[in-house]
Design brief:
The protein is an alpha+beta fold. It has one domain. The chain is 15% helix and 43% strand. It contains two helices and eight strands; from the N terminus they run H-E-E-E-E-H-E-E-E-E. It has an eight-stranded antiparallel barrel. It is globular, with a radius of gyration of 17 Å. The protein starts with a helix and ends with a strand.
Amino acid sequence: MTQRWLYALIAVILMTTAACSGSLRGVLRNDANRVSFNYSNSQVGNANLQVTLPGGERFEGRAERGINQTRPNAGATTSMDRFEAVETFQGNAEAVLSGDRGNIMQCRFLLTDVILGFKSGGFGICQLSDGRVIDVFY
């Protein structure tokens, strides 16, 4: 009986850790280039995000469940109107990612299930500080 319980516990741990990472697909609106987002440590609508744009710029940040309208852009001095496409999108999770070339990417996602997070599916929008917009689906 104890051995069966141990196998069940191991199976649950493996399923939980396997479902904690994955990828999101995106398309840049201005030139239709595809962009792949990778997420990890996805728990209850929160996840670490990484993305590399076609030009090679890498972005990293954390997605969090809920929308906080008063939160500044990760300490950046950029104007909120630069992210107008994202600010008008109704979502239930958001992220601010920092690029390795000084740009910022702000994102909002509409997760199908905030408890399951990104693995539940949904869609979103990201906008870079230079104005480019990425439509995201997963």
